[in-house]
Amino acid sequence: MKKTPPAKDISAYLRALPRDSRIVLQKLRETIRAAAPQAEEAISYGIPLLKLHGPLVFFAGFEHHCSLFVASKQILRKFEPELRAFRVSGTTIRFTPEHPLPASLVRKIVKAKIAYNLERLSSKRKRGSSLSSRHKKYGGAS
Fold it and tell me: Does residue 88 form part of some domain?
């Protein structure tokens, strides 16, 4: 694939891809959006990102494969049996246009990542409020 300037949005990113990758990644995008309709779209690190209570998933097209980046080994471990047909490395799932990720699996991964992000957000808030109350207890201003 030839080097192109960074895309300004996901639609521009997809337009720059070969047809077969563009089609499979557009379907992936639609599946993610259906599972997380409130998610915001962005380009980060030069690839598509969907965010909801933090980074949700990234995806990208390459010369010989496509990838879904979940950014959580914990989430991928939950779906290990269903991912056996795909190449998984770290927090990345590789697939091809000829052998795309099943939409049902993508929906489950996205829902699990939303729950994961909410749990992390809740934990941060709890830690923050306990730090704030300790600060008040010892005479600090709020």
Answer: yes
